[in-house]
Amino acid sequence: MIKFIIILHLFIGIGAMAGGIGAMLNPDSPMGMSLDLLSDSPFHNYFVPGLVLFFFIGVLNLVSGYLYIRKNHFGEYGSLYCGIIQIFFIIIQCLILWVITPLHVIFFVFGIIQIVIGILQIRKEYHES
Question: 48 Cβ partners below 8 Å, 6+ apart?
């Protein structure tokens, strides 16, 4: 389970950082996305969502994966919090864009997996001490 969560954190983290960089470097049309999707949102372009994606999803997932690799017990809490943040990010994104894509569903499920594994690992650590 530990190897799986490390791979999941690295996969999500690297992907979110790449997507965040894409949105920050080309905020008017990142990866071909139209600004029309943001017409009813508080954003004028994709820079701020890209910034949030980069730091709050990307960097935090990489840090959590690193903590697991270093066998630091804060990795479990990182999984829990990364999963919660990711789920909120997906929900807010879907509400702003009024679109739900298969990727939203997949990454929502990844967030649930992170939460469940984080809780299981925290409980295991608690019962062992």
Answer: none
pTM beyond 0.85, yes or no: yes
Measure the CA angle with vertex 5, ends 68 and 48; round to 5°: 90
Length of the chain equals 129
- Domain extent for 53: 2-128
Cβ contacts of 40 within 8 Å, gap of 6 or more: 96, 98
DSSP label at 59? I
At 28-52, the pLDDT tens digits run: 999 888 899 898 899 999 999 999 9
Measured CA to CA, the distance from residue 32 to residue 26 in angstroms comes to 9
Residue at 23: amino acid letter: A
Q: How many CB atoms lie within 10 A of CB 6?
A: 18
Q: How far apart are CA 45 and CA 40, in angstroms?
A: 12
Domain count for the chain: 1
* DSSP secondary structure of 6-43: HHHHHHHHHHHHHHHHHHHHSTTSGGG--GGGGTTSS-
